[in-house]
Design a protein that fits this description.
3 helices, elongated
Length: 83
């Protein structure tokens, strides 16, 4: 029998420094867009950037709604026993 290797269960905390890094990246994009230097800042097309930014905005808005509603949201519904 061989040994079983288990991956460690790593949890990344979303703390203020990680959120600040995400905001800084978006702010860098904003600066490049305002200065007309997007092509030297990213290899993504304008259409790809807009899609990514719309996804970020949507996800942020939905997260705010969930936080403010106080509801518990399950990614996977709880199992139920069926008799």
């Amino acid at each position: 029998m061989g040994q079983t290797h288990q991956q460690p269960n790593i949890h990344y905390l979303l703390n203020d420094s990680r959120l600040a890094a995400a905001l800084e990246a978006i702010d860098d994009l904003h600066d490049a867009a305002a200065e007309g230097t997007l092509s030297s800042t990213t290899s993504l097309s304008k259409q790809e950037l807009v899609c990514w930014l719309r996804d970020v905005v949507y996800t942020a808005q939905e997260t705010i709604k969930e936080i403010e509603s106080g509801r518990k949201v399950y990614a996977v519904p709880p199992l139920r026993l069926i008799k």
